[in-house]
Amino acid sequence: MLFSRNKYTRTIYTLLSLSMAMLIILLEGCTHKKMLAYQPVALDLYSSPTVQPPEVSLGKLETPQTTISVEKPHNTVLENISPIDIEKARELAKPILKYWNNIDQRSTLVRARILSIIEQMQMPPSLQVIPVIESAYQPYALSHAGAMGLWQIMPGTARHLGLNSPHGFNARRDVNQSTKAALRYLDTLHKQFNSWPLAFAAYHLGPNALASRLNKSPWKFSDGLSNMPVPEITHTYVAQIIGLASLMDSGDIEFSDPVNTRTIELEAPVDLALLASLTDLSIEQLFTLNPKLDYQQYLKQSIQLDVPADAFESIQTAALSSRPKLIQINIRPGDSWYKLSKSYRTTVQHLQNLNPQTGKVLYTGKLLTVPANQFGSATSRTNPMLSKQRRVYYKVRNGDSLWSIAKRFGTTPEAIAKFNQKHTNGIIRPGDYLWIYAHIQPS
Fold first, then answer.
1. 296 and 271 in contact (C-beta within 8 Å)?
2. 153 CB contacts (<8 Å, ≥6 apart)?
3. CATH of the domain spanning 76-249
4. How far apart (Å, rounded) are the C-alpha atoms in residues 322 and 266?
5. What's residue 22's pLDDT?
6. Which class is 389-439 in CATH?
7. Which of 27, 147, 279, 310 would suit a FRET pair with 11, their CA atoms being 20 to 30 Å apart?
8. In this prediction, what percent of the chain has a pLDDT beyond 70?
């Protein structure tokens, strides 16, 4: 029985072992099938007959072009003016263009300061064309009515704007002071009339005169520039400013780059003619840069001088040697060659050599050149740009004739006609421009 039980037990163990082995085989088979079922498949898309590989050019790859639009600053001077009016204004301004090269050349010595002040005061850049119309950028321009400088400021207007001229200086010819005053005035007129065309008209005609005309005949932009209730000459003036502003805006005209300047302080005494001779500047350039000056020598007053920025250091060095060597004095009652030679620590012969046109007898009130040993009775020489004939760009006004214009400026009708290639009996009209050689006196 024991054997039978053991035999039975072995049989059971054998069957169980076989069952376990079969189960393991089955499980391994299922696992292998599952692994095969989830095996990733590598797909070759380009091997498919329906999908073609893209053609790649081996040439230069082109970068897509991006167009950047740079918008010009809005020109407020031209705001609300119709295209038709602007086109008419451009036509009225075009006659000035035949003088543009000369105007542009003159502007280079002063325009950098004007642009700087326009920017500081946040005024429209187009206002830089006003001196073109007013003075052709001639800082010594003088009108028959007494208007002076780049902005042609009248004496009464100068007083109203606080432009004071101390002895030896003229504020209306001062580039910085006159520009600030003119721009303040234009800003006031713009705020008063709420329109740049009307502000320009008021600058030319006077604000009271314009206000009176507007009370009788109100004007708005839609009426057109030609219907502004102003004289024809004022209409032309306004239109030419707008026309030049538009021509600049469109790039049809442009100014050359201006000369940047710096201000140098000069202690008295200083001889500007001597200073110019010690530098690369001509005396004409020095006084064109500084039209405010009345004299060549400043013996008791310190002055501020505007000079080209790139020559600042050399001029500053030369200024140390610019003390005047000779001065002029007015002969007083009782003066004699001997007395003056003792006063100025020189000899009679040296004084006479300095004054070859003066005879042995000295006349009271006449000028005499003496060594610069003392300045008590010295008289400074006049700014050379004032003491000789200067070109003036003159706007013909109602009632003008060549004869009346010549009389005002100390010249002749024949000289004006010849200089402007006109006949002496030719017709001139209000709004025409004439170049005139005028004798301009110091302030």
1. yes
2. 147, 161, 163, 172, 178, 181, 182
3. 1.10.530.10
4. 10
5. 47
6. alpha beta
7. 27
8. 79
DSSP designation for 120: H
Token pair 């599952």 is found at 34
- Residue 382 CA to residue 388 CA, distance in Å, equals 10
Tokens matching residue 17: 């072992």
- Indicate if 389-439 has the same CATH topology as 76-249: no
In the chain, % of residues over pLDDT 90: 53
The tokens for 290 are 């500084």
User: CA-to-CA distance for 37 and 164, rounded, in angstroms?
Assistant: 103
Residue 34 C-alpha from the chain's centroid: 87
CA 72 to chain centre: 18
**pLDDT per residue as tens digits for the range 69-93:** 334 457 899 999 999 999 999 999 9
Segments in 38-154 forming alpha helices (H): 83-93, 100-107, 111-120, 130-135
- State residue 374's pLDDT score: 63
What pLDDT, on the 0 to 100 scale, is given for residue 37?
33
Alpha carbon separation from 325 to 47, 272, 273, 344, 369 (Å, rounded): 101, 12, 11, 12, 10
Mean per-residue pLDDT, 395-417 = 84
* Domain map (residue ranges) of the chain: 76-249, 261-319, 326-371, 389-439
Instruction: Provide CB contacts within 8 A for 421, sequence distance 6+.
Output: none
pLDDT of residue 311: 94
Report whether 288 contacts 384 (CB < 8 A). no
39 exposure class (CB count in 10 Å sphere: 0-12, 13-18, 19+) = exposed
On the question of pLDDT at 254 being above 80, the answer is yes
Average pLDDT, the chain: 82
Which pair of structure tokens corresponds to residue 326? 């000779």
Give the pLDDT band of residue 111 (cuts 50, 70, 90).
Answer: very high
Report the alpha-carbon distance of residue 281 to residue 283 in Å, rounded.
6
Asked if 311 contacts 281 with a C-beta cutoff of 8 angstroms, the reply is yes
| CA–CA gap between residue 182 and residue 2 (Å, rounded) | 138
Backbone torsions φ then ψ of 261, nearest 5 degrees: -125, 160
Into which CATH architecture does domain 326-371 fall?
Roll (3.10)
In angstroms, the CA 139 to CA 152 distance is 9
Decide: pTM greater than 0.70: no
Judged on CB neighbours under 10 Å (0-12, 13-18, 19+), 355 is middle
- Among 252, 255, 242, 254, smallest CA distance to 93 is for 242
> Residue 405 contacts by C-beta under 8 Å, 6 or more apart in sequence?
144, 394, 396, 413, 416, 434, 436
CA-to-CA distance for 110 and 33, rounded, in angstroms?
A: 96
